Amino acid sequence: MYWMITNRNVDADNKTFGDDFTDLSFWQNASDQVDDFDSWISIKEDDFRQGVVAIADTFPDPNNTPSEDQNTSTYSSTDSIILGNLRYSGTGPS
After folding, report:
1. What are 44-93's pLDDT values in tens digits?
2. What is d(CA 22, CA 70) in angstroms, rounded to the nearest whole number?
3. If you ran DSSP here, which 8-state letter would residue 37 be given?
4. The pLDDT of residue 92
5. 4 within 8 A of 31, measured Cβ to Cβ
6. Position 6 in a domain
7. In terms of C-beta distances under 8 Å and separation of at least 24 residues, what long-range contacts does 14-21 make, across chains too?
8. 77: how many CB neighbours lie within 10 A of its CB?
9. Residue 8: is its pLDDT beyond 80?
């Protein structure tokens, strides 16, 4: 699952993000096709927050887990933040 926050406008004609800035928008992508605009769905800010928090709540305590066992990654540019591979395959917090 991938999660993205961006301040770029949507160019509906070209099915991509445009060159202009706009209010923040929140996106989710359940596929690995992060370069395919049609794979992204726009979601409400509250749904975005709840989804990311729900996943983060399953992460083990970072104080008791070696960094190599923590499974997170991020990508950031000047106009977008993509959170990718937010998952934990362990048993959850104790």
Report:
1. 999 998 988 888 787 777 788 787 776 655 554 555 556 654 443 444 44
2. 34
3. G
4. 41
5. no
6. yes
7. 17/80, 21/79
8. 8
9. yes
What are the counts of helices (DSSP H) followed by strands (DSSP E) for the chain?
Answer: 1, 5
CB half-sphere exposure, 19, CA atoms < 13 A? 0
Distance separating alpha carbons of residues 59 and 65, to the nearest angstrom: 10
Are the CB atoms for 17 and 10 separated by under 8 Å? Answer: yes
On whether residue 90 sits in a domain, the answer given is no
Question: To 5 degrees, how large is the angle CA 69–CA 53–CA 2?
Answer: 70
* Number of separate domains in the chain: 1
Domain that holds residue 41: 2-84
pLDDT in tens, 12-28: 888 888 889 999 999 99
